[in-house]
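Can't attach files on this board, so I'm pasting raw text. These are the components:
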Amino acid sequence: MNWLKLISTLSLALLVTPVFLLLYEGFGPLRDPIGYSYEVVRAIELSLLSSAIAAAICITIFTPLAYYFARNKNSLGEALSDIPASIPHPIIGVAILVIVSPLTPFGRFLLSVGINFFNTFLGLITALTIVSAPIYINSMHPFFQSMNIAYENYALGLGASKFRTFMSVVVPNSGRGILTASLIAMSRAMSEFGSISIVAYYVLQQPFYGVSPAPVLIFQYYTYYGLGAAVTASAVMILVSIVIMILLRLVKRSTTL
Amino acid sequence: MIRQEWKGQLVMIEADVKKRLGDFSLDANVSDEHFICLTGKNGSGKTTLLNLITGILTPDDGYVTLNSRKITNLPIEQRQVSIVTPDSCLPHLDVDRHLIWGAKNKGLYVERDYIKEIKTGLGINFGGKVRKLSLGMRERVSLATSLVSKPQLILVDEAFSNIDNHRDFVDTFRDLAAKAKVDVIFTTQYPEDSTQADHHYRLDSGKSTRLF
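---
Top answer:
Structure tokens for the assembled complex are below.
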């Protein structure tokens, strides 16, 4: 075995050992029925749905931005778009709450028209969108950079506006890139804890009334019941994440074929 | 075979442009109409000149006019100039939708017989998604699409080179362009291709020379 393979194997083991240990303990010696109760299933449902919506919002809002960055050098804009990924995520949660705070005129206005982020599905999705957007943009950026610009110049030369070129040429030829980037963004959103533990510790709206997002619930279990329930719930969550990861691999594989 | 000639209003292309890109400097002048051949070695500035005419690049100095209309500072989509390179295509479309895509953008009505004439003339006797076609087939479709969209000028950057029997193809393309009153500037690395053109310019280290 050469030295590079040895180091690679060791570093990979370092990454996956805690995960496999958690799976083993969660479904084995430390198994606790609370960890796969109906409450956990609902929490995972909430996390999956809110993360999928956040990923869909990323596609809608941030695909044009990623394309813009790929075609126009804008170091300041790129640095600004990275801010949510580079600051502690509880700060994002606090910032979102400030937006709807009754202490500010803008917050009072939003509350007066019924827009509230605190412990709402809207707040949860907003937080997840903000924290996963930089991941989505940074995934799409190299994809657009590698896309042949000759397609766009050809379409423009055929009289298409820049908007039509983007919608009718760039987007239809970016399907796999968008799918890959959105799955990465969704995975990131599912693992978010810092911001949502402040904005949406639980959701007080139907159909998820009283349900906490899965990462928050795992934290609650750890503090209420101890390690056993938290480890089992974590193992269930890991299984769901693995399914998404397999999907991502399949998409990436089909992209390179 | 009778060579089709341009009739009616002439479209005069005038480009007198200067552009510096790193160590390379272009100082070129083209002032002609109809079917114009641009020859020169790799790196002589052919693509740079076409990019300046189409608006992909902006000249450091100089101007581009089309039929006395100054287009130097217009965005690509407003120039009425279509550029076709070996990579130019809309890969997600099938051949028939591709052919009318540009015309549809401009709100032009295209008669079926005209599409048929173009397809027959340019040897487009195949279908399917453009991304799955060979390079030569894609170039035929892209050149045909440009013709159908009726710009004032088509710039062909080496896109004739990968087509089988390209000299016959160039003759047919020239006739169809003449009939549509569309002028063409095409680049080639083969000086003998200039015999099919009405005018011939040679680029050498960024400097243009009109040969005829």
